[in-house]
Design a protein that fits this description.
With about 100 residues, this protein is mainly α.
Length: about 100
C-alpha cells in the first residue's frame, strides 16, 4: 500500500506546479553579487574554490530566494542533490 503525504488533484497538470523550463537549462543568475559579498567578508578565496554549479545554487537559494525543489527542476536533478551541493558549498566556505 502506498501512502501519500499530499495529493495533487486529478484536474491539476503536474507540469504547471513548477516553472516551465527544460531540465538542465541554466538559471539566469549573476554570480558576481555572490563574489562581491564574499569579498566583503574576506572570503574571496572561497569563491575560487566553489564549483560553478555550487555558486549558482548558492546564489539561487540565498540571493534569489528559490527553493531547493525549484532549483532541482532547472537542473533536472532531485531536491536532495541540490540540498547536498548547497550544503557542500557552504561547508567549503566555513572551512576558510
Amino acid at each position: 500500500m502506498c501512502l501519500y503525504l499530499f495529493k495533487i488533484p486529478k484536474t491539476t497538470n503536474r507540469n504547471t506546479l513548477w516553472p516551465k523550463t527544460k531540465p538542465g537549462k541554466e538559471m539566469p543568475l549573476n554570480t558576481n553579487q555572490l563574489k562581491q559579498i564574499l569579498e566583503k567578508m574576506g572570503l574571496e578565496e572561497g569563491y575560487k574554490i566553489l564549483t560553478e554549479r555550487e555558486k549558482q545554487i548558492i546564489c539561487s537559494y540565498y540571493l534569489e530566494g528559490y527553493k531547493d525543489e525549484e532549483i532541482a527542476v532547472f537542473y533536472g536533478v532531485t531536491q536532495q542533490v541540490i540540498n547536498r551541493l548547497r550544503r557542500k558549498g557552504i561547508a567549503k566556505l566555513k572551512k576558510i
